[in-house]
Amino acid sequence: MTPEHESPEFYDRPMVRRLQEIFGFPVAPGKVTEQQFDCLQRELEALARLQWHQIGARELSIYLMDLCYATLQQELFDYLFPAALILWWEGQLSRKGGPEGECDFYHAVDHGAALYKMMNVECRQHVYHWMIDAYMDGVDAWAGELRTTHLGPDAPNDLHGPLWSFNSLGKSVPILEDILERLMDVSTLGRAQWWLVFASGLIWRENECPAVPPWTPDGGGGGIYLLEEDSAIYDHGYLSENHRAFKDQITYANVLAMLLHANEILLETEYAEWAAMAFDKFENDADAIKSRIDALVSAHMQLKLEREWDR
Q1: In b/e form, how buried is each residue of 173-184, taking b as 16+ CB within 10 angstroms?
Q2: What share of the chain is helix, strand, coil (3-state, %, to 5)?
Q3: How many Cα atoms occupy the beta-carbon half-sphere of 307 within 13 Å?
Q4: Rounded-to-integer distance, Cα 204 and Cα 119, Å
């Protein structure tokens, strides 16, 4: 029985179909010649025998280490890297992030050979477009699920999830220019929420945003942390292409315009009062917010995204 017959609901999704086409409908290699980085060769061979719908973050974790540090086998990469992309996409939809283990997805992509050695230019461009769509799927799926408290380690990050993924992509995959262009089409509730949260992080410092309760160890809160991320990339800030796009597009005038559009969409939602307060504050505190934007742009070129700018 083919994987499609075993789990049609998994493979019938258009995003999965696109990856099959991008990677030439890959199948597991007959023999695994890649040497697993942590000497877990049997586990790697067992992973290669699984179908995509059978692979979870736990099973994939050993391959993330290989993506980051090992010499990769092309046939195995063509089969397993799409599985990693699917798990990443699903993490965007759920706002739970991942996949990760000892190495996270973004670190593996940034430090390894996945983007520039294992794919030709055409394949890489298709993957970039797929990732842009996958990220925007996650933003749009956020609609109506914006929450200012955190319910625990296994719960969705319903306040920061899309923004922390944005920062992680900023440090690993050169696609922020296109993502920002898509975000500026404020045509969905999820995109309106994105700009509301982002603008609120510029307006209010930690424990100052009226819509976010004070921080507690169990419930989160405290503020909107615009420099946090889901990646463990500590040797550089945003990629140069991403930093240039961020600097060009994240201006006071642009964010004010996005916040105005967001207010229109949020008018009949539970976030309407928060959005109105944010727009009023943003419009009337222009000098302070312009200074905050300059500081944020500068901070994104630091080796590790830190919160000192917010203090």
Answers
A1: bbbbbbbbebbb
A2: 55, 0, 40
A3: 11
A4: 43
How far is it, in rounded angstroms, from Cα 120 to Cα 117? Answer: 8
What ranges make up the beta strands (E) of the chain?
none
Query: Do residues 307 and 225 lie in contact, with contact meaning Cβ atoms separated by under 8 Å?
Result: yes
Q: How many other CB atoms are there within 10 angstroms of residue 147's CB atom?
A: 13
Strand partners, 216: 220
What residues are paired with 100 via a beta bridge? 104
Task: Retrieve residue 16's tokens.
Answer: 């999965």
Instruction: List the one residue out of 82, 101, 119, 91 whose CA is nearest residue 232.
Output: 101
- Rounded Cα gap, residues 105 and 99, in angstroms: 6
259-306, pLDDT tens digit by residue? 999 999 999 999 999 999 999 999 999 999 999 999 999 999 886 555
CA 238 – CA 249 distance, rounded (Å): 15
Residue 9 CA to residue 15 CA, distance in Å, equals: 12
Give yes or no for residue 240 having a pLDDT over 70.
yes
The model carries a pTM of: 0.94
The DSSP output letter for 187 is -
State pLDDT tens for residues 105-147.
999 999 988 999 999 999 999 999 999 999 999 999 999 999 9
Backbone phi, then psi, for 35, in 5-degree steps? -95, 115
